[in-house]
């Protein structure tokens, strides 16, 4: 059997994204060392004084759902480290991992302290990133949509105090794009648990920029206010309708977007530019208008909505961002206008990432520059879509 260091060396030289080798290698371990803790009588564990502790589940928890992991802890216990030896345990564990060329760790099963804290000081939790869902179950097709819905609704509360964690997913999976789109608009971190060589690069490149960062949304992905306490199945209003083709249809209102008017501020015409990721189409409508959407089961689309503003009293413009990314608008950091005494107007877009940058523009620009370099652009007079190709590893 090869050593851990040998395995790390292999992974470090594996070109996961085809164009770049991994920068950092992390290992995944449980808070107690392993998922069941430390076995008290195992070789090498004696100096940490582990003892078995048996969680007691509340009646409310038991009435909600039986969990095989918790049931096993009830029956077999958790090998709990002596709190006075915890620092020594982590020092020893992490020194070993560092000696094997590991760069860091991902700590799982942090909630175990919640179940065995009686007599050890009680509950104490201070963190900014918190799981908002059950685990991702790739082999269970019925949980894919439930997972997304659960996190979205849980984020109504959790999103006010922490960054919701949507859990990992597989990029090579029948529901991969469905999960990828949810992470793109979820305001969360993005991580996958793909096996080496088992990746869908088309999906990954729509989530991750060439240099490895993601276009994280500023706020958590949550349901709009109008549907928080609505039940389209039982209230008889038929907000969602299913046609003979099996598609579920509904309407999208830009006015439902939280904080939209606040971020639009001055120079806003009151109209919006809307870009559909699936169709690549751009259209204009007022903030009070709506547009219809029809999707089949497990199908998804992302609509980027940007306020159309007036610059130099005559140019109407709205940056849509990188149209090759699920969260296209996440690439736009700022938009401003510089005018001179000859009524010439320059609209400056600051952003990050490379790809196809799109914008709504009422007129065709004379020229387009990317970091002072003149770049070719395309302009469609029908839908007013302006596109410019941003070279990879370039900031706008």
Secondary structure: helix percent = 10-25%
Arithmetic mean of pLDDT: 87
Q: How would you spell out the order of helices and strands? A: HEEHHEHEHEHEHHEEHEEEEEEEEEEEE
Low-confidence spans: pLDDT under 50, at least 5 residues? none
According to DSSP, the number of beta strands is: 20
Q: Give a quick account of the main beta sheet: strands, pairing sense, barrel closure.
A: 7 strands, antiparallel
Query: How far apart are the termini?
Result: 49 Å
Indicate the overall shape: globular
Sheet/helix structural class: alpha+beta
What Rg, in angstroms, do the CA atoms define? 25 Å
Fraction of residues in β-strands: 25-35%
Q: Give the neighbour order of strands across the main sheet.
A: 10-9-12-13-16-20-19
Q: What is the helix tally? A: 9
Function: Transglycosidase operating by a ping-pong reaction mechanism. Involved in the synthesis of raffinose, a major soluble carbohydrate in seeds, roots and tubers.
Keywords: Carbohydrate metabolism
InterPro entries: GH, Glycosyl_hydrolases_36
Family: Belongs to the glycosyl hydrolases 36 family.
